[in-house]
Amino acid sequence: MAEFTDTYRATVQLIESRLAALGTEKREFESPDVVAAGFTGMPRQLILSLQPDEHFIRTVYHKVLDREVEPEDLATLLARLEAAPTDRDAVIDELVASEDALDRKVRIQWV
User: Fold this and answer.
1) Quick one: 64 and 103 in the same domain?
2) I need a labelling partner for 27 at 20 to 30 A (CA). Which of 9, 17, 18, 48 fits?
């Protein structure tokens, strides 16, 4: 796993440096731990432990809905988690049961 993580970090750094040289907008990349876990399935506990809340929300949206979170949804969820940090399980469950997930026929198998 360490070799994968090092290779991934080096690749991200290379991409970021090329984007900077081109004057292109900076991109957001997943953390190496999340990417590595994706090869074997991402344990729910790993997702629940992601910090900060924004990273958690973005990861859940990518994992469950395969898309970016809308800015207004991000703001709402950030405020919700700030008020009740233990709601992370509920956020995941709500997204899995959402109309968007049902339309996409999303199946989540937690490891």
Assistant:
1) yes
2) 48
CA distance 30 to 73: 20
Q: Which helix (H) or strand (E) holds 107?
A: none
User: CA quadruple 54, 55, 60, 63: dihedral positive or negative?
Assistant: positive
Are 46 and 36 contained in the same domain?
A: no
Same domain as 35, residue 51: no
Three-class SS state of 48: helix
Domain hosting residue 21, numbered range? 1-40
Interatomic CA distance for residues 110 and 107, integer angstroms: 10
Q: Does residue 51 sit in the same domain as residue 100? A: yes
Query: What tens digit of pLDDT does each residue of 44-94 get?
Result: 778 888 889 999 999 888 888 888 999 999 999 999 999 988 788 888 888
CA dist 48 and 69 (Å) reads 17
